[in-house]
Amino acid sequence: DIQMTQSPSTLFASVGDRVTITCRASQSITSWLAWYQQKPGKAPNLLIYKASSLESGVPSRISGSGSGTDFTLTISTLQPDDFATYYCQQYYSYSLTFGQGTKVEIK
Amino acid sequence: QVQLVESGGGVVQPGRSLRLSCAASGFTFSDYAMHWVRQAPGKGLEWVAIISYDGSKKYYADSVKGRFTISRDDSKNTLYLQMNSLRAEDTAVYYCARDRVPFGGVNVFDYWGQGTLVTVSS
Fold this sequence. Notes:
The complex is a heterodimer of chains A (about 110) and B (about 120).
Chain A lengths: L3 E4 L2 E4 L5 E7 L7 E6 L6 E5 L3 E2 L7 E6 L2 E6 L9 E6 L6 E2 L3 E5 L1
Chain B lengths: L2 E5 L2 E3 L5 E8 L8 E6 L5 E7 L6 E3 L7 E6 L4 E6 L8 E8 L9 E4 L3 E5 L2
Parallel strand pairs in B: 2-11
Antiparallel strand pairs in B: 1-3, 3-8, 4-5, 4-9, 5-6, 7-8, 9-10, 9-11
């Protein structure tokens, strides 16, 4: 299985900060990467697919980039609604696998 | 609007079985591949299984292969997960999720249910 490793595991930030989360795959997954946001007690919400395509309804302050094995999720100006846990997911091959998550907390 | 509602969770003893259901509405269920994804308490997400839009293809995570079976009943707009030989490590919230793209699918999850908790304990 392809292993997905996110860093950092926890990130402390303030409203208005620029935030970057990194996801690394154990082998090339070309651009077959998605990002999700999850808030406590809720189901995940799709943010980005195909590494950089923004899902409908997702604010434009959120963006994704990367290809091959290295990917990033960036929130340009952190808003109160963005404090949550973020997961990357590869869909290059089965088994589909997620990163371990990055929790964005208030500094 | 798209709605996915899971049911069937509960407390079950190790080695026993449980069947989860996911009732879908607000879209043409038979056009979409469907997935199960689980999340152990306080842990990350783990993909469990997929069934293609026509039911002809099914894939499973290694951790559940041979014990879990995914199925669908398009006449009832319902997805199922039959879980046999349950283990303590199967304890999790189980989500059903819709594939983002109809027919062929892309293995990206655009709509999720609220989840149902399965606890495996003696």
